[in-house]
Amino acid sequence: MKTIHIYTNGRLEEKRGDIVREFPLVLQVNGREIATLIASPHDLRFLVAGFLRNQGFVESAADFHMLAVCDEFGIANVRIRQELPERLKPVLTSGCGTGITFTLETGGREAAVAPSPAVAPEAVFRLMEELARQADNYRNHGGIHSAAVGDGEGNLLLFAEDIGRHNTLDRIAGEALLKGIDLAGRILVTSGRVSTEMASKCARLGIALVASRTSATDMAATLCHEAGICLLGYVRGGKFTVYTHSDRLLVPEQAAASLPGPVPRGRIPGVTGVILAGGQSSRMGSNKALLPYRGGRFIESIHRQLSEYFDEVIVVTNTPEQYEFLPCRKVTDIHEGMGALAGIHAGLHHSSNPAAFVVACDMPYLNGDLIRHLASMADPGGVLIPESPTGLEPLHAVYGKGCLAAIEATLLSGQRRIVSFFGRTNVNRVNVAQIAAFDPEFNSFRNINTPTDYYRLREIERGEALPAPADERAGASA
């Protein structure tokens, strides 16, 4: 920790904080000094092994006769099986701090990546979200790039961070080499720009899909096209740009075309939509779920929207006879009189899927892109809950069947607040910044509790008013 000063509103405030470290590492191979790597000072063996692998100097862990790193003096002493070329022609790359490579390829000189199964966009989003969760340094004080490799389902296999984005890929390549992990056909996600040296290294490793939160260069796109790599940029907010090989993406239309019989478009597999309709509506004075809205009743609009996203929709209500007009299953609380937590428990208990997206029946501003994003990251073993400027949003969250026992124990202990069971299960939060990428005004979490709320909604529908500011919304108790 060092003393730093933060400038805010005309004042300097002294604080203790971290500063990103740079570490120069002299690389000696077979007695020759070939480069000085500027990197972050952790896991340097992986960095060295990956650098040499991506330069084509080694192909397996058996090619190393010696791999020693002296942190005190900043020297890596390596002996490898093959001899180095007599003359090495270094190329200064566009990496952070200027990287170096001896084997920069452009065009089709790299071997084409072997064909692999198409990847669903949800897998890319899932892995990118996992990258964000892992990248603690990047969030805490900036200046750190991160990268991760996952399988075709978006499951994280390897993660690395470094001051240089090219170093993150070297670290992943080295760790995979020393641990015997095959990278062929995998997905790589990165926080930094994809430039030529990054694309060349991915081609050498057999990576099938590369995705960045930012951009890609034209030369990188050319190399990826020739190598058969699907290249994506600007992966954020449920969207991305495809630069090469869009045929390697499994979009809903393609999935439907490849399966026998009709398949609903855009449905999210493995997740049930649950509408909670068990509130007392005391502030409204009548059942708000049955208020007139858009030519029908309030709950019909929410049911219609969820039916576009989920194969199964369930309404949780202790008065199922009032909702006979809805073409879906109606279930009652197993633990009556225990509020919204009992409703979540009942919906999850009766769900045919391993997870459920739960929403209250009085939320008219649902955002489809945000719902798809949250549902794509569903954790069957726990809770995925979004955050808004006013706190957690448990009535617009995804619950896995793995937390049923925790909810049951909480209800039996007499606790009614939804967050009461969070300490007994796995809870993943989707922070405010991520939510704002989909819904900058956080309208998704607004609900209708009073006649004033309802009349304002009707005025908004007629274009006569705007939604209330976020700090005025009346959220449900967590």
Automatic annotation (TrEMBL):
Principal EC category: transferase
Protein name stated in the entry: Multifunctional fusion protein
Residues binding GTP: 276-278, 288, 333, 362
Keyword annotations of the record: Cytoplasm, GTP-binding, Magnesium, Metal-binding, Molybdenum cofactor biosynthesis, Nucleotide-binding, Transferase
InterPro entries, sorted: Cytidine_deaminase-like, FdhD, MobA-like_NTP_Trfase, Molybde_CF_guanTrfase, Nucleotide-diphossugar_trans
One Gene Ontology CC term in the entry: cytoplasm
EC numbers, comma separated: 2.7.7.77
